[in-house]
Design brief:
The complex is a heterodimer of chains A (272) and B (269).
Chain A lengths: L2 E6 L7 H14 L4 E5 L7 H4 L10 H5 L5 H4 L1 E2 L6 E4 L12 H12 L4 E5 L6 H8 L3 E6 L3 H14 L4 H4 L6 E9 L1 H5 L6 H8 L3 E6 L2 H9 L10 H13 L16 H6 L5
Parallel strand pairs in A: 1-5, 1-6, 2-4, 2-5, 6-7, 7-8
Antiparallel strand pairs in A: 3-4
Helix pairs in contact in A: 1-12
Chain B lengths: L4 E4 L10 H13 L15 E5 L4 H13 L9 E5 L11 H10 L3 E6 L3 H9 L3 E3 L2 H4 L6 E2 L5 E3 L8 E4 L4 E3 L8 E4 L3 E7 L2 E4 L9 E6 L3 E4 L2 E4 L12 E6 L2 E6 L16
Parallel strand pairs in B: 2-3, 3-4, 4-5, 7-9, 8-10, 9-11, 10-12, 11-13, 12-14
Antiparallel strand pairs in B: 1-2, 6-7, 13-16, 14-15, 16-17
Helix pairs in contact in B: 2-3
The chains are: A alpha/beta (272), B alpha/beta (269).
Bound molecules: adenosine-5'-triphosphate and magnesium ion.
Chain lengths: 272, 269
């Protein structure tokens, strides 16, 4: 039985798709058979970040509506074994995601995969609801800013009330905080919330901190998830995240400014 | 004979209109003197008249007998007509019911429950419509506590509302920005209060609000309220209690040792 994990946030553009691509790739790299499902119907871009946009023939909606089989729609990743992508439809509207259809597809995938990652669209509407409904775990992607934290808080409320596990009174969804685009310098300057601030408000365990990194944009443009490049900070942060997801204990990196020497830290260098 | 209706209310004074509440309102108005008006969400104690029959004659008789009693405290007070107990296909004519109420010096201001036609009729008579309890209040899955109060062991998140209709409300966690907690009695927050807290919603002036860290958006006791901008900032982040004294909402620091569990306990690893 696969573990179903939703990557969600409420707020748009915080790094859900980037995280879904890298975490999914990381899981497969470590030997776990993984499928990534793009729930962002009408705005699909998981296939772009995964670099398989030219190989999309059928999509998730086709499968839901019985117009194609899962076998036909699943795209096999070219770089890593055990990794598949189920792309979203760019042409249909999001109401085409029916609950029964989503359930049927997830059930079918469950028998064959170890992990199913659902890349949620932004917002709290139908698409986001469908992406989280059947989840066992949730990775809540948050940026260190007030509006993102507030939206994540709202999403956490919905995870606790509007999902199958909540409605049927099963064990609650396991929640993880992924703090993305963390810019230690700006945090130091007081321009962004600290890790402590965010943890204090959201009150869920941290699964990873991904630094703000130029490597992410480059990787996206090339269609190669950043986790492939272990010389980059973001790549390392994502692989650590995957290891924690698998139960390993790994210290958080990139949460303290690095280049400043011991002395400048002691004497503060004029900073607060 | 069974009662034809049932009037229930904890307190008749709608606090926001009461003279004592005017000071708060006036103060607020002075601050925003450039604006013509301002809307504020609030919980007012108001009398609800629950209908058990659609028979206007029986209703009229019941009202007449009830209101002969000089101790009847609810004359001339605003009234919500609640038809939730009536089958939707069996509603009394609203215009006739309103006229009946007015004859007995009761002032219907809104209806609750009823059917589609009733709602339309309410609108044309200049009455509001209040959502039914079930729709308006998201279920909170908290365990009811023996003393009619409620203990909730989780963080109350943005968009969530927790309501203790009969007693105190105890939150073992924080109330985040955008969340709302309400109680007939006092509210205790063993965490940070960042959202809205409304205690004494049925008019209990003795209700209080306690929290380990004060960062509220709004505080209200028995309809007297303060917005974030009205509290003294030195109290922010401190353990604070809020109480009513001579209809004024006061905040005071609680003299407790500050505990600091530390955020690191939230980290997995
Ligand atoms: N760690 C990072 N450092 C720098 N840029 C990042 C980082 N993570 C994401 N980005 C950039 O932020 C933008 C949004 O990322 P992404 O598409 O993953 O967000 P999303 O949450 O999926 O957005 P949407 O809500 O639109 O689906 C992209 O341009 C991406 O390159
Ligand atoms: Mg996305």
């Amino acid at each position: 039985m696969a573990k179903i994990i939703v990557i969600t946030s409420g707020k748009g553009g915080v790094g859900k798709t980037t995280s879904c691509a890298s975490i999914g790739t990381g899981l497969a790299m470590l030997g776990h058979k993984t499928v990534l499902i793009d729930f962002d119907v009408g705005l699909r871009n998981l296939d772009l970040i995964m670099g398989c946009e030219r190989r999309v023939v059928y999509d998730f909606i086709n499968v839901i509506h019985g117009e194609a089989s899962l076998k036909q729609a699943l795209i096999r990743d070219k770089r890593v074994e055990n990794l598949f992508i189920l792309p979203a439809s760019q042409t249909r509207d999001k109401d085409a995601l029916t609950q029964e259809g989503v359930e049927r597809v997830l059930k079918e995938l469950s028998t064959d995969f170890d992990f199913i990652l659902c890349d949620s669209p932004a917002g709290i509407e139908h698409g986001a609801h469908m992406a989280m409904f059947y989840a066992d775990e949730a990775i809540v992607v948050t940026n260190p800013e007030v509006s993102s934290v507030r939206d994540s808080d709202r999403i956490l409320g919905l995870l606790n009330s509007k999902t199958q596990r909540a409605i049927e009174g099963q064990e609650p969804i396991k929640e993880h905080l992924l703090l993305a685009r963390y810019d230690v310098e700006r945090v130091e300057e007081g321009e962004m919330l600290t890790l402590e601030d965010v943890c204090e408000i959201l009150a869920i365990p941290v699964i990873g901190v991904v630094p703000e990194s130029e490597a992410v944009l480059k990787a996206s443009n090339q269609g190669v998830p950043v986790v492939h490049d272990q010389t980059t900070d973001a790549g390392q942060a994502y692989l650590d995240t995957v290891k924690r997801l698998l139960g390993e204990q790994v210290d958080l990196k990139f949460i303290h400014p690095e280049k400043r020497s011991f002395l400048s830290r002691v004497f503060g260098g004029g900073r607060r | 004979m069974e009662a034809a209706l049932h009037t229930k209310s904890a307190k008749q004074t709608p606090c926001i209109l009461g003279s004592d509440a005017m000071s708060t309102t006036q103060a607020a108005m002075m601050k925003v003197s450039q604006q013509a008006l301002r809307f504020k969400g609030t919980m007012l104690p108001v009398t609800v008249m629950e209908l058990f029959t659609a028979d206007l004659v029986a209703l009229e008789q019941h009202l007449a007998s009830k209101l002969q009693d000089p101790s009847a405290f609810f004359t001339r007070s605003p009234l919500v007509l609640n038809a939730e107990r009536l089958p939707p296909e069996l509603m009394p004519d609203l215009a006739a019911l309103v006229a009946c109420c007015q004859r007995h010096e009761l002032l219907p201001i809104a209806v609750r429950g009823g059917n589609h036609v009733w709602r339309e009729q309410a609108w044309s008579l200049g009455l509001g419509w209040i959502d039914t309890q079930d729709n308006a209040r998201p279920q909170n899955k908290a365990v009811p506590h023996a003393g009619a109060g409620l203990i909730v062991e989780r963080t109350i998140r943005s968009g969530q509302q927790v309501w203790s209709p009969k007693g105190d409300l105890v939150i073992l966690g924080s109330v985040n920005e955008g969340a709302e907690v309400l109680a007939a009695g006092s509210i205790h927050v063993y965490g940070t209060l960042r959202g809205r807290a409304l205690a004494g919603i049925h008019g209990d002036h003795k209700a209080r609000i306690f929290c380990m860290q004060m960062d509220a958006e709004l505080l209200a006791i028995a309809g007297n309220y303060k917005m974030a901008e009205d509290f003294a900032s030195p109290l922010r982040g401190k353990p604070v209690q809020t109480y009513l004294e001579a209809e004024r909402l006061l905040l005071a620091e609680l003299q407790l040792p500050t505990s600091n569990g530390g955020w690191r306990s939230w980290l997995q690893a």
